[in-house]
Amino acid sequence: MFPTLIGTVVIAGIVGYAAERSGFVRNGYVPSIIISVGGAFLFYFVALMFGLRLFSPGIDAILASLGALVIVPTHYRRK
How far apart are the C-alpha atoms of 16 and 10, rounded to whole Å? Predict the structure, then answer.
């Protein structure tokens, strides 16, 4: 359980950095990493509590990070 949690955080951080670097989002490096790690944490603990797994834990971390990066910034962005 603990190595999976650490791996989730590392993968989410890399996804947040890569999303910012590639221009997928424009939040800044630190906010993108925080958002993606938060989304991955949330999905990890929900999956742990309810037994909900989509794919392997690494793929779940990538999908949760990208989902959080899409949902959170567009929800709070001013027009």
Answer: 10
Asked if residues 37 and 12 have their Cβ atoms less than 8 Å apart, the reply is yes
| Domain interval for residue 72 | 2-76
Q: How many residues does the chain have?
A: 79
In whole angstroms, what is the distance from residue 14 CA to residue 75 CA?
A: 22
Compute the half-sphere exposure of residue 59: CA atoms within 13 Å on the CB side of its CA: 4
Outline where the chain has alpha helix (H): 2-22, 29-50, 57-76
Task: Work out the mean pLDDT of the chain and round it to a whole number.
Answer: 89
Share of the chain above pLDDT 70, in %: 92
